[in-house]
Amino acid sequence: MGSMRKTPAGLRADASPPPSRLLRRRVARLARAVRERRALELLYGGAWRVVHPHAIGRMGTGRIGLLTWQTAGLARGPGDPGEGWRMFDVARIGATRALRAHFAPRPRGGPAWTAGIGAPVAEVPSRDEALSAAPAEA
């Protein structure tokens, strides 16, 4: 976890070390998947999960997070169907595979729908924007 430091203006700023080259490449690939609305398989915590990535950026902890709607994979517990919003620490993702499938964004839960991510590097458009931009069926 990064330390905090004072800036000349007296504001506190994250002094996290810069991400490694591998992490920067992974962030770039994941950001592209977010912008393209491409479904992914992630290896995380030793299990594969199928996700729809909705946003990526720095979390309040200073780490880089990937906000997804998980559609299949490891559930959180016996009563959890395995589907739902999940935030993944990008540094802990073991592997990724882009799938051919694209997805329509999930409805947002309000203006702070990426509350865990301070400033997204990439995020999907709102569901209404994405559906209105889709080509008309012939």
- Roughly how many Å apart are the termini? 52 Å
Q: How many runs of DSSP E, i.e. beta strands?
A: 8
Query: What's the story with the biggest beta sheet?
Result: 6 strands, antiparallel
> Structural class of the helices, strands and pairings?
alpha+beta
Rg of Cα set: 16 Å
Number of domains: 1
Instruction: Give the SSE string.
Output: EEHEEEEEEH
Helix count equals 2
Strand content: 35-45%
Low-confidence stretches: 1-15
- Percent range of helical residues: 10-25%
Mean pLDDT: 80
Overall outline: globular
Features:
138 residues; alpha+beta; 2 helices; 17% helix; 42% strand; globular; disordered N terminus
List the helices and strands and how they pair.
Blueprint (H helix, E strand, L loop, with lengths): L3 E3 L5 E3 L6 H16 L1 E7 L2 E13 L4 E9 L11 E6 L3 E10 L14 E7 L3 H7 L5
Antiparallel strand pairs: 1-2, 3-4, 3-7, 4-5, 4-8, 5-6
